[in-house]
Amino acid sequence: MKNTNDIYFSKEHTWIRIENKTGTVGITTFAQSELGEIVYVDLPSVGDEFNQDEVFGSVEALKTVSDLFMPLTGEVTAINEDLLDSPTLVNEKPFVEGWMVKIEIKDLEELSNLLSEAEYQKKIEK
User: Sorted alphabetically, which SUPFAM superfamilies does this protein's record hold (predicted)?
Assistant: First the structure.
């Protein structure tokens, strides 16, 4: 996994990279490896608003569908349209080209509910 010191993790296996009040959201390497090959990604529309831990979309793998949970409250400002034609980018490069949405973060204090990389690694090793 690449160095993710600037990334926070949710207990529901999503990550968020924060730059100013913009967050880029995706699913973790662990989550995509557990799901297997991603064949479809259902993303929200620009302008949709979600609370922390609210379902904002889903990913479909060959044998299962999994909900995506928003790591921080915010409004969707962009979606990764490349995933509509190439959903396997989530498997191939989850922290780079496999991001899902960008949000305008509404409450940075919610960061206290997220995990650091070290905390997330401990969680998934159990």
Answer: Single hybrid motif
